[in-house]
Amino acid sequence: MALVSIIMVTYNKPEMTWRCVDSIFRNTDIPFEIIFVDNASTDDTVTYLKTVPQATVIQNEENRGFAAGCNQGIRAARGDYILLLNNDTIVTAGWLTKLMEWLDAVPSRGIVGPMSTHVGPMQCVNDLKGISIKEIESYALERSRTYAGQGYYPHKLIGFCMLFRRSLVDLIGGLDERFYPGNYEDDDFCLRARIAGKSLWLAQDTFIYHEGQGSFVSKVGTKKYVLQSIKNAERFRDKWNIGLSPLEINLRGYNPSEIVAREYVFLPERHAIPL
Predict the structure, then answer these.
(1) CB–CB of 20/41 below 8 Å?
(2) Nearest to 113 by CA among 95, 139, 88
(3) Which stretches make up the Glycosyltransferase 2-like domain (predicted)?
(4) pLDDT digits over 210-249, tens only?
(5) Do the Cβ atoms of 244 and 254 come closer than 8 Å?
(6) CATH class of the domain whose range is 4-264
(7) Could you tell me the pTM of the whole model?
């Protein structure tokens, strides 16, 4: 069976990472490796990471941001499949198997993501009662039964959990590091995949818990996080020639399909981001 490389960027909060890693080992039934990219944690995070089986630890001396960290992990990955996973998540039974099945079901399918909490409206559930691990796993099991075999094509996926083949990276490159320290690199990655003729898929029968913005907010604080998000919205607007203000993009969104229609021919010199 093919190997999946799980790439996780970390910054402090080792208890959060431990919770995520524990759920991975309890709920993953296909071969995987974990590649941690630590963005200069100041606590005992790296000490913990080095104890995790099946893991590679990359230590940065400075915070290189989410996109750069993911690219470092992709370069080190041994798997034919790559999964970007935030450390503020809790995965549930059969999560990766279902995502793999969805990805492999259609050859032109480029990226697959799950349903979750504290994400954009398209991927967000609103009926989870409680946030204990037991409640999360019970909810995920019931959802997998209720929505078995169901999913749809979204216009974008959120980067807290995205599965794709290494061949997609060979085609479109990695994440765009101009979107430092985070936000809009996932929008950009999904756009480039779609322009290259690859579809996105949202698996309604797969749920993982997402706490939301754990590492980013702990690093910079809520106010600075919002300001950085607007700055990246400006970079995103300028890159893709969107006729909206950064504030409008950040608060109300934009239409990815309009961009894909306009950029209908994939040009490596324009659209690929070399690793």
Answers:
(1) no
(2) 95
(3) 5-169
(4) 998 655 555 555 678 889 999 999 999 999 999 999 999 9
(5) yes
(6) alpha beta
(7) 0.95
